[in-house]
Amino acid sequence: MMSLRTRVALSGAVVLTVFVLFTSLALERAVRDTVLSAREERLLAQVFLLMAAGEEEPGGLVFPKTLGEPRLNLPDSGLYAKVLNALGDPIWQSPSAIGADCPTPLPLAPGQRRFERLSGSDGSTYLTLAFGVTWATGPTPQDYTFVVAEDAAAFHAEVGQFRASLAVWLGGMSVLMLVILVAILRWGLKPLRRVAEEVAAIESGKQAQIQGRYPAEIRALTGNLNALLAHERARQRRLDNTLGDLAHSLKTPLAVMRGALEEGQVPSPTGKTLQEQLGRMGHIVEYQLQRARAGGQQAATLAPPVPIRRTAERLVATLTKVYRDAGIQVTLEMDQGIQFQGVEGDLLEMLGNLLENAFKWGKRRIRVWGTRSRGRLLLVVEDDGPGIAPEQASRLLERGARADEATPGHGIGLAVVREISDAYGGTLRIDQSPLGGARFRLSLPA
Prior knowledge:
This protein is an alpha+beta fold. It folds into three domains: 4-158, Beta-Lactamase (2-Layer Sandwich), CATH 3.30.450; 216-293, no CATH class; 305-445, Histidine kinase-like ATPase, C-terminal domain (Heat Shock Protein 90), CATH 3.30.565.10. The protein is built from nine helices and 14 strands. It has a five-stranded antiparallel beta sheet with strand order 4-3-7-6-5. It has a five-stranded mixed beta sheet with strand order 9-11-12-14-13. It is rod-shaped and about 155 Å long. The chain starts with a helix and ends with a strand.
C-alpha cells in the first residue's frame, strides 16, 4: 500500500498543479483583456487624430500628405487607416495601406463604435476599430466611417511573451512549493517515524515500551500501545506461572504411577496398558499446554529474535544421542543470521517434532535447511525414509492421525507443529523429498 507521505505528496502535487493551471489561465485571460483594451484605446486615439487632420473641401475630405503618426506614412508598417463613405466605399486610405491586404469593415451610423478582429484574404488577423461620424463643416453634412486597423501579430507576440514569462515563474514557484511541501511533510511525519523506530526496537527486544514524547494527536496511540504491551507481558507471566504450576502438580502423580508399574505392583497385562496410557496422558498434557501457549501468540512478536541454526544444532545433537543406533547422518544448511521472531519454546516445539519425525522414519540421511525470502521464513526438514503418500499428507496433520500404527507414537507431533504455525500465521506442507522420503516445509512470516 502507498505510504502516507507519498499519498499526501501526490495529493498536494495534484492540487498544486490544478491551482497553477487555473491561475495561469485566469492571469492570461486578464492580461489578454487588458492588452486588448489598451489596443482599443490606442486605436481610438488614432481615429481622433485622423479626424482632427481631415478637412472638408468641395471634392470631399482631404488629409495632409504627411500624417502625425509616422507608421501611417510607411508602407506595410502594420498600422493602417481608411475613411469610408455612407455606402461603405473607401474614399481615402493612408500611405501604409497602399498594397496591403487590410480588411474593410461595414460602415457605421454616426456615433457608433465597433472594435473587432478581422481576417485578411491571406489569413492575417487585424484589430480594427471603426467610428461613425457626421461631417457638418461643409454646405451639406456627410456621413463617414473612420477605420484604423493594426496587425494583430504584435498583440499575439505580447500575450505570448507574457505566457512564457508566466510559465517560467509559476513553474519555478510550483517546484519550490513542492519542495517546501515535502519538507513540511517530512517534519510533520517525523513523530510517526519515531514511533515506528521504537516499535521496531521493542520487537527486537532492545526496549520494553515506547518512551519518547509525542504530539497530542499521537500520544493516545503511544499510550494505548504501552498499555497493550504491559497487558501482554502480564498475561505471558500468568501463563508461564500457570504452566509451571501445572507441570509441577502433574509430575508427582505421574512419577508415583510409573514407580508402581516399574516395581511390578500391577499385573503385567494391566501394567502394559497403564504404561501406554501414562505415555498417552503425558503427550495429551503436552499438547494441551502447547495449545494454551499458542493461544497467546499476540505477544510473540515482542520476544527477542531466536537464532534458528543454533536451536537446530541443539536439537540435532540431542536426537542423535537418542537415535545413536540408527546411524543417521544429518546435513544442516542454514545461515547463522536467519532468526525466528517469536517464543523460543515454540521454535523448539515445531522444529523438534519435525526432526524427531525425520529421525523416526529416516534410514540414513536427514537434510535440514532454511532461507528467508520475500518476507517469509522457510524451514525444510527432509529424510530418506518411506515417504508419505499425497492422499495421506493432509490427514497426518490432524490430531491423533498416524501413518503406521505399529510404530510407537500418538500422532500429535505434526498436529502440534500445525497448531503453532497457524497461530503465527504460517503454513505446514508435506510433499516428496529428493532424498526419497518425506519433506516438511514450514513457512512463517519473517
